[in-house]
Every structure is written in C-alpha cells, then in structure tokens.
Amino acid sequence: CFFLMIRRPPRSTQSRSSAASDVYKRQPLNWTLMATSGILETRVRPWLQKKCIEYIGAEEPAFINMIVKRLINKEKPEQILEKVQFVLDTDASDFMMKLWRMIIFELSKIEHNLA
Questions:
Q1: Considering the entire predicted model, what is its pTM?
Q2: Average pLDDT of span 6-25
C-alpha cells in the first residue's frame, strides 16, 4: 500500500519571517503578568501539547518543556525560533507566530479582566 503525503505548498520563508517579526515587535509581552498569572501552565502548555501533535504527530514533552523554560527565562522570540527550527524546520516561523499571538491574546484577556 502506498500513501501519499499531501502537504500544503510552501509559502515564501521571507514573507513568513517578516510577518512573524511584525507580531513580535507590535506588542511586547507583559512578562510580569505572564509569570504571576499562571498562563504558562493553564493556557500555553496545553496549547503547545495540541500543536505539537498537529505539527510533529506526537506529544514531545522535551520540546514543550524547552519552549516553556525559554518563556520563563524571558527569551526573545527570535531566540526561541532558532531552537524550534531544529524540530519544525519550515513550519517554525508559522508555529512561533501562532504561539506569540496566542500568548498576547491570553495576556490581553487577563489585563482587561475577561479571563
């Protein structure tokens, strides 16, 4: 039996990376709120578990822990992206952009008492 892997056509790496850097620069994270709110465990870790399965095909605790640890250490998204690229290759920019947007959204909900 032969299986065909159907992948979406690759987008331009340059357009993805510039869109991602725009997201990173547009709104800096409130690191203090992220540390005190607990969203790393309540929102980010479950999101990472779901996306890990979506992108890699399996839950990879070491990959998830690496990202959470880097967020705890307040690393710049570009630094995290470098590490994520080893695992996700061409999907890394897209993944990081979605992660950053999700974190910004969750922090905004807390800041505006919507959570």
A1: 0.78
A2: 53
